[in-house]
Write a structure and sequence with these properties.
This protein is α+β, with helices and mostly antiparallel strands. The chain has two domains: about 70 residues; about 120 residues, no CATH class. It has two helices and eleven strands, in the order ααβββββββββββ.
Length: about 230
């Protein structure tokens, strides 16, 4: 029998064993989780220590107090411990969520625009009365810079009230009067609700922000002119 030569490229090539690579968990995620757990444990221990400390102080002072005083102290201890636990939970949330919202902020009314009026300018919007910024004055002995300055607004009727007798004009009354407004006070002219933002005597001007949602405002009005 004649042996047939097999071309080299037809010989079966032995396969190398495949290696399966398992991705290791992200060190950053693992480290963050470990830090969060450690932080929670430390804050819990701190809250427990604070609770025990205040409880010991309360019981040490028992001989000089009546039962009602002891109860009030224990209530205060419980409230402080509750605040400590809440603070621990907030700290844990802040550590695990980098996009957490800020805490402790006081939100003011939303403003649609900021109007600046100088002395002599008219305030817009009144249908019956004309209002004009008459002057900026200083109040001596004020408790704070916010109450040291005030604006004087002059108001009078657009159309004076007339009294006639037999067709003859006897009396005409424009109802002129002055109004005083301080920083932080709110007033309405027409459909707009304004809140005084600042008052400057050097610039002889007043700035007031028009509230974005006037119907939702709950502040008392210094004056209201439709």
């Amino acid at each position: 029998m004649t042996q047939t030569d097999v071309p080299p490229d037809l010989h079966p090539t032995p396969r190398e064993p495949q290696q399966i690579v398992v991705a290791a968990p992200s060190r950053s995620l693992l480290g963050t989780a470990v830090q969060a757990v450690v932080l929670l444990l430390l804050l819990s221990i701190l809250a427990a220590v604070v609770l025990v400390l205040f409880a010991v102080v309360a019981f040490v002072n028992v001989p000089g107090q009546v039962a009602g005083g002891v109860g009030s102290q224990l209530g205060g201890v419980a409230a402080q411990a509750s605040r400590a636990v809440s603070g621990a939970q907030q700290a844990l949330q802040n550590a695990t969520d980098p996009n957490h919202p800020p805490s402790g902020l006081t939100y003011d009314n939303e403003l649609a625009s900021l109007q600046v009026w100088h002395v002599g300018d008219g305030l817009p919007g009144g249908s019956e009365y004309v209002l004009t910024l008459q002057g900026i004055k200083r109040r001596e002995g004020a408790d704070s810079p916010d109450t040291a300055l005030y604006a004087v607004v002059h108001a009078q009727l657009r159309q004076p009230r007339e009294t006639r007798l037999l067709g003859q004009l006897v009396r005409s009354d424009a109802d002129p009067h002055d109004l005083v407004v301080y920083k932080g006070e709110t007033f309405r002219i027409g459909h707009a609700l304004y809140r005084v933002n600042w008052i400057s005597q050097d610039e002889a001007s007043l700035a007031a922000g028009a509230l974005r949602h006037p119907d939702a405002a709950t502040q008392s009005l210094k004056f209201d002119y439709p």
